[in-house]
Automatic annotation (TrEMBL):
Locations listed in the record: Cell inner membrane; Cell membrane
Family per similarity comment: Belongs to the sodium:solute symporter (SSF) (TC 2.A.21) family.
Protein name as annotated: Sodium/proline symporter
Keyword set, alphabetical order: Amino-acid transport, Cell inner membrane, Cell membrane, Ion transport, Membrane, Sodium, Sodium transport, Symport, Transmembrane, Transmembrane helix, Transport
Organism of origin: Pacificimonas pallii
Gene: putP
Length: 498
């Protein structure tokens, strides 16, 4: 039986999200730039929390606490890598990408930017990168829908598959109508909710353990290795695999598109400070939730069948139903903020890089916005179909998609922004090699000591390295067409002036 207070909190949350969608629908210009990038008018605060909330999806409140619950401090290397990667992304990608995409004939999508950066009249870069976005974002979106299904099943006893439809339905509603503006404003609100929840839950659970001594006593009784960053004999490759999650930031379209939408490159330092402060607090809170939750569960004899539900369990045991509903809304916020961003980026790619390019070159702005809305719905339906497998792990699905984008796009984003000699052929080789390496690493028939290659090292490491090598070597061989050098020089001048 669902408590009345919990229902009230969730009803308020859903109403707020839908209200923002309606407001954004009325406030956004009915053109592609308005629907896909909000007219490049985001302030630093909205940019920072929107990037953070769309990044820290359901895995932040489900997957990462679950990993800490199972492995202890050794799982926190993921958090270390993510913090370093996010900071480097703000420093090396954000200012130049914001400037370059505007100067390169107002590029709206990442594939559009690649095509204009390398003057690709064949559209090969746009097609290949668009396919990569659609493939990996459909998988990524499915991970968020899985998290929503698990939430409704665990917290409310609602059928897992019905939970999938509730989660996706609300997200589709405000994304479909409000576009990028709705996604960004809801992300800001959702980021605030996540921030508060990831402070409250671990602190209250920690208080129930009689402080640090109670925590260490319970964890030592389970396994002393849980308190060791190198617990269980974790090796160098395992640490590299965990920390290498940070490499993925350079190639995540749903994150770096926020840099394209901020109103000015001059606002990026402020956005970086806000974003990194928010991320540091929330990621420490997520790790603490799993870590403290393990000790609390043992101390109180609580059976935890699925480690990825520890946040849900604590939120319902420790708080009044009204507060518990707010905390469940934080999980929905994490899930929905990422799904909406992914749906919009996949939709923009289908609209700009497929429909406009191959079906209706002369389509009006209002027609393209309508197509974008249909694309949001189509991708959501496919993701729901993929999410029907109840045994799917949120963290595993996210890891595969994160690696795919990080390896396919990350090296090319960096090379395209910082090395003027990068060529079209090098760019195409980098995308293909990075994506193919991840796919083979995850789904290929090769094994390491009887297990998949991912058991040896996270697939983003070989994918990122081989992609970077392909870009560099192929560009050296094909220096006859080094891309848009004139625009590159204008970007340099603009960054120096700022």
């Amino acid at each position: 039986m669902i408590e009345t207070g919990t229902l009230i909190s969730l009803a308020i949350y859903f109403a707020l999200m839908l209200g923002i969608g309606i407001y954004s629908w009325r406030a956004t210009q009915n053109d592609v730039s308005g629907y896909m990038l909000g007219g490049r008018q985001l302030g630093p605060g909205v940019t920072a929390l929107s990037a953070g909330a769309s990044d820290m999806s359901g895995w932040m409140l489900l997957g990462l606490p679950g990993a800490m619950f199972v492995s202890g401090l050794s799982a926190a290397w993921i958090a270390v890598g993510l913090l370093i990667g996010a900071w480097l992304n703000y420093v090396f990608v954000a200012p130049r990408l914001r400037t370059y995409t505007e100067l390169a004939d107002d590029a709206i999508t990442i594939p559009d930017y690649f095509e204009k950066r390398f003057q690709d009249d064949s559209h090969a870069l746009r097609i290949v990168s668009g396919l990569v976005i659609i493939l990996f974002f459909t998988l990524y979106t499915a991970s968020g829908v899985v998290a929503g299904g698990k939430l409704f099943e665990s917290a409310f006893g609602i059928d897992y598959r019905f939970g999938l439809w509730i989660t996706a339905g609300v997200v589709v509603a405000y994304t479909l109508f409000g576009g990028f503006m709705a996604v960004s404003i809801t992300d800001f609100v959702q980021g605030c909710i996540m921030f508060a929840a990831l402070i409250i839950v671990p602190l209250v659970a920690f208080g129930g353990l009689s402080g640090a001594d109670g925590l260490t006593t319970q964890l030592n009784a389970i396994d002393p290795n849980l308190l060791d960053w190198f617990g269980g004999g974790i090796g160098a490759l395992a640490i590299i695999s965990a920390a290498s999650w940070g490499l993925g930031y350079f190639g995540q379209p749903h994150i770096i598109v926020r840099f394209m939408a901020i109103r000015s490159a001059r606002d990026i330092p402020a956005a970086r400070n806000i974003g990194m402060g928010w991320m540091t607090v929330t990621i420490i809170g997520a790790c603490a939730t799993g870590f403290v939750g393990l000790a609390y569960a043992r101390a109180n004899g609580i059976a935890v069948e699925d480690p990825e539900t520890i946040f849900i369990i604590l939120s319902q045991l420790l708080f009044h139903p009204l507060i518990g509903g707010f905390l469940l809304a934080a999980i929905l916020a994490a899930i929905m903020s990422t799904i909406s961003s992914q749906l919009l980026v996949a939709s923009s790619s289908l609209t700009e890089d497929a429909y406009r390019l191959f079906i209706r070159r002369g389509a009006s702005q209002s027609e393209l916005v309508l197509v974008g809305r249909f694309a949001v719905l189509a991708v959501a339906l496919i993701a729901i179909g993929l999410a029907h497998d109840r045994s799917s792990s949120v963290l595993t699905l996210v890891a595969n998609a994160w690696a795919g984008f990080g390896a396919a796009f990350g090296p090319l984003i960096l090379f395209s922004l910082w090395w003027r000699r990068t060529t079209f052929a090098g760019a195409l080789a980098g995308i293909l090699v990075g994506a193919a390496t991840v796919i083979i690493w995850v789904y290929g028939p090769f094994t390491w000591n009887g297990a998949g290659l991912g058991a040896a090292i996270y697939e983003i490491v070989p994918g990122f390295c081989l992609s970077a090598a392909a870009i560099y070597l192929v560009s050296l061989v094909t220096q006859t067409k080094p891309g848009s050098v004139a625009t590159f020089d204008r970007v340099d001048a603009s960054i120096r002036a700022a």
